[in-house]
Amino acid sequence: MTHHKAAAAALLILCGSAAHAQVGNPADEQRQSTSGSGASTDDHAIAAEMEAIIIEGHRSSLREEDRIGANEQPRWTAFRRFPSTRIYVQPPGYVGVEQWYRISERKHDGGTRSIAQTEIEFGLPHRLQLDLYLINRRDVPGAETQTDNAVELRYAFADWGQVWGNPTMYFELIQQDAEPNKAEIKLLLGDEFREGWHWGTNFVWEYTMGGSKTREYEWTFGLSHTVRDDKFSVGVEAKVAIEDESGGRGEWERDYRIGPSLQWRPMPRMHIDFAPLFGWTDTSKRADIYTIFGYEF
After folding, report:
1. pTM > 0.70: yes or no
2. Are strands 73-74 and 67-68 parallel, antiparallel or unpaired?
3. Average pLDDT of the residues in 268-294
4. Which backbone phi and psi does 205 adopt, to 5 degrees?
5. Which DSSP category does 153 fall into?
């Protein structure tokens, strides 16, 4: 693990330098001069404090739906709205940290897995985002804690609002301590369908590169409504997953979960998310509970 931690640290330093590197973008300069908003072009962008960009045809009374940054995206997309569903990318120059706590309980044997995960997020130019993960997981009772790490890269195909659903590709490699590594690919979609109502959905393929060579296909969905602008929102999330193994291709194990979600923003740069999802089939997890603390630097 020492070798891999050193590699992760080196990658973190490299990505931090990239996130802070000065990148000249003529389109950004043109956007600033025509919007009259005084939008910041600083290398290190604080999404919570960015001034709004005036977009023709866009009207909203909510600050969290202001358009910000080089991607002209809504402010709310800079802060994770759904624990189980990803949306778009962070604005260029964004740097944030999230601390995850997740508890999953299986129905068929009553086993419980606890996960503590640290995620560092970098918004990059050209609609890219890089995330680094350190993951500690433990199966209860009796198992030792396993330490995994992962790297994630996202690419959004266009500035916000230019293509329906704001499609974004997501690629992740997961190095597991005592189990085979995994690869994951997602298509992320999300948008607003009326003021204060936000949605996201993901189509996911995950493959275990060794052992049983498990294939997993997922569909996730999140719907959120703003109760208090820039402060509090409530919603619902759902996940449908099927998986098979190399020794039984086509013999699918199904896992269906649904539950409420909420986000609280106690201060502009901080968000706290909570989503307890519950299974409704015999092969589903009994409960999958997400708690996330996030902060933008």
Report:
1. yes
2. antiparallel
3. 93
4. -125, 125
5. E
